[in-house]
Amino acid sequence: MSDALVAKYGEARLPRYTSYPTAPAFSAAVGPEAYADGLARLGAADAVSLYLHIPFCRSMCWYCGCHTSVTRQDGPVADYLDVLSEEIELVSQAAGNDLPVRNIHFGGGTPTIMTPHAFAALMAKLRSAFRFEADCSVAVEIDPRTLSAAMIGALGDNGVDRASLGVQSFDPRVQHAINRIQTFDQTKAAVEGLRQNGTSSINFDLIYGLPLQTVRSCLETVRMAVELRPERVSVFGYAHIPSFKKHQRLIDETQLPDASQRNAQAEAIAEELVGAGYVRIGLDHFALPHDPLALALQGGTLRRNFQGYTTDDCETLIGLGASAIGKLPSGYVQNEVAPGRYAERVASGILPTAKGYMLSAEDRLRAKVIERLMCSFEADLAALSGEAGYDPAFLTRRNERLAQLLADGVVTLADGRLTVSQQARFMVRAVAAAFDAYLGAPGRTHSKAA
Predict the structure, then answer these.
(1) Chain centroid to CA 397: how far?
(2) How far apart are CA 203 and CA 160, in angstroms?
(3) Most buried among 72, 225, 282, 286, using CB within 10 Å?
(4) CB under 8 Å to 183, separation ≥6 — which residues?
(5) What pLDDT score was predicted for residue 12?
(6) C-alpha distances out from residue 259 to 3, 183, 208, Å
(7) pLDDT given at position 441
(8) Can you tell me the distance from the alpha carbon of 55 to that of 63, in angstroms, rounded to the nearest whole number?
(9) What is the rounded CA–CA span in Å between residue 301 and residue 376?
(10) Residue ranges of the chain with pLDDT lower than 70?
């Protein structure tokens, strides 16, 4: 793929398409009443997933794009967990205590910032509020720098079987440039402790496109990471949006790689991981061949949600905590972002929903197309349109973005089936964007596509 096309599509700021429509389309017209109605409609036989957001860290990594804040004390975290427990009760009452739970994901921030006792208490609250399925999977995002032996024990005692560890880069120069100093030994100790306490699947998060990063330093990080043999590796491109995340202004923009360099880093990382025995999953995930994620890709059941590529087949995701996003069969809901406002709503006995989006038939069609493109790099546009009751040419007629992608050789279209060219797969977000009816609306801010 030419440098001109890399620059053309790689420089565009586009959604990651972990949902469709994406969060900028959400509206305050969807509030607590709509959410309560959606919860009440859930069937006791339909398993759901839970996402719990813990918006605190001990220090701020300058690249971070999450909703989080820094605290050196345990008090603010404990107060927040009290509110979170109250929200769990509100949701449980609205949905019914017999709601079956298949997957739980703790995200942040740094979920392991809470004390071991607090984590155990929170898990007990969830068990009392919902009905865990026998094989319920529990995943936690972890900062290895602050993970204690006591917390590792609490995770094991409470059924945590999946852990995602932030690594980003092992290059000391890059670590200093992003304010995240993390040694290989810290990461190794966390992995060994987690595995000894029952965690069967470990994911590493790596990032390319960081300041001072080179292809050589990316490859060295990968080689060190695979020594620990994580079951999965997620590789993300750094999204530099200092107007949205003010702490990113501390990063020296002159040290950031350009689109061509970012693409070279991403492809070098991918090649190294595949050479180490990992299967490439979609745009930015990798897994060992026996991992359920690789098996889902092979079986055509791979999905995509707010955590990225997943085997989670639940149609409902209940988001808990400040800024958490949930998905119901009817659409999306998002909690108040500011922890203070979130706490006020919960204290008033009101579901803290700030905004959301109710899906139309066309939205559902476009969501299916985008998910298939992101997961499989192809989509049968004619078949999906027909199944949804639309003309087979509905999605392609007068689609200028698609026409340009076809002309540039990024995709091919034959018998209604759209396929992303092998050498252009890193541009799949640009392809998905061709079916985004809301792209370009005022106020939308996204990361670069490559």
Answers:
(1) 32
(2) 13
(3) 286
(4) none
(5) 66
(6) 9, 28, 11
(7) 60
(8) 16
(9) 10
(10) 1, 10-12, 97, 441-450
Rounded to the nearest 5°, which phi and psi values hold at 48? -125, 165
pTM of the entire structure? 0.93
**Tokens read off for 73:** 């004390």
Residue 226: closest CA among 209, 208, 202, 207? 202
Q: Which two tokens stand for residue 53?
A: 């957001």
Closest CA to 213 of 279, 163, 258, 154: 258
The residues, ordered by sequence, that sit 6+ positions from 437 with a Cβ below 8 Å of its Cβ are: 21, 362, 363, 366
Residue range 397-443, pLDDT digits in tens: 999 999 999 999 999 999 999 999 998 998 899 999 999 999 976 44
For residues 410 and 5, the answer to whether their CB atoms sit within 8 Å is: yes
Q: Environment class of residue 253 by beta-carbon count within 10 Å: exposed (0-12), middle (13-18) or buried (19+)?
A: exposed
Nearest CA among 174, 52, 68, 71 for reference residue 119: 52
List, in order, residues 6 or more apart from 33 with CB less than 8 Å away.
none
Position 144: which residue type? P
Q: What is the pLDDT of residues 300-312, one digit of tens each?
A: 999 999 989 999 9
Q: What is the distance between the alpha carbons of residues 31 and 301, in angstroms, rounded to a whole number?
A: 32
